[in-house]
Specification:
The chain has 210 residues and is α/β, with parallel strands linked by helices. The protein has helices at 16-32, 77-91, 97-104, 116-120, 146-157, 173-184, and strands at residues 47-48, 59-64, 70-74, 162-167, 193-195, 198-199. Helix 2 packs across helix 3 and helix 2 crosses helix 5 (146-157).
Length: 210
């Protein structure tokens, strides 16, 4: 008897539902992902064996570059708007709405208060053209120690904020000492602060755990 061949039929799979799910997931991750803002200056941190991770929210960030310039930043646009409102009112800077917005979108400030308005005339993308001399800092809490004021204003804007210090391995010791002396002062106490370092292998750790 002749064999009857079964006709092959192509299988069609409706991918509409899968595409919809993929699109929804993509949209979710685009909206939910929080991109880390760039550092105000390039910093080569010293290495350590500590693998403790610092949360990137509710944070005050102090950066010290290799030339000893000190920068200050906080996370959150609204927090930074609250911060600049307080500074503008207290220092009577006369900032415009655009200048305040430029501050809220900046990646860190490294100028004295009397140069802040001149810096904020520039958009965040243009601010790197401005010659930042660094925030004045001292080992004592005088009017010359503006870093202390930044930390105090930051605490008003976000009382939950933690402090992190990111210093270049080649930063000048007197500046690093002044920053730590400021944060160790009893008027600043109540904030723990963390030093940001690069991770290196622990020589005392067993090979199978490295």
């Amino acid at each position: 008897m002749p064999k009857h061949k079964i006709a092959r039929k192509s299988t069609a799979v409706d991918m509409t539902a899968m595409c919809d799910v993929s699109f929804l997931l993509l949209t979710f991750f685009m909206l939910a992902t929080k991109f880390k803002p760039p550092d105000p200056v390039e910093v080569m941190t010293p290495a350590s064996i500590s693998d403790t991770k610092i949360a990137e929210t509710d944070l005050m960030m102090i950066t010290i570059d290799k030339n000893g310039r000190v920068f200050f930043d906080m996370d959150g646009v609204q927090t930074k708007l609250d911060l600049i409102e307080t500074i503008n009112r207290d220092k009577n800077l006369g900032l415009t709405a655009v200048e305040k917005r430029n501050f809220s979108l900046s990646s860190g400030i490294g100028v004295p208060f009397n140069q802040l308005k001149a810096l904020l005339k520039y958009s965040p993308a243009e601010q790197k053209q401005f010659k930042s001399t660094g925030i004045p800092v001292d080992t004592v809490l005088t009017d010359n120690n503006e870093l202390f004021k930044w930390v105090a204003y930051g605490r008003i804007s976000n009382p939950k904020a933690r402090l992190s210090i990111k210093g270049d391995g080649g930063a000048k010791y007197p500046v690093v000492r002044a920053v730590f002396a400021t944060l160790a002062n009893k008027k600043v106490q109540g904030h723990k602060f963390y030093a940001v370092t690069s991770l290196k292998a622990d020589p005392n750790k067993p090979e199978d755990e490295k």
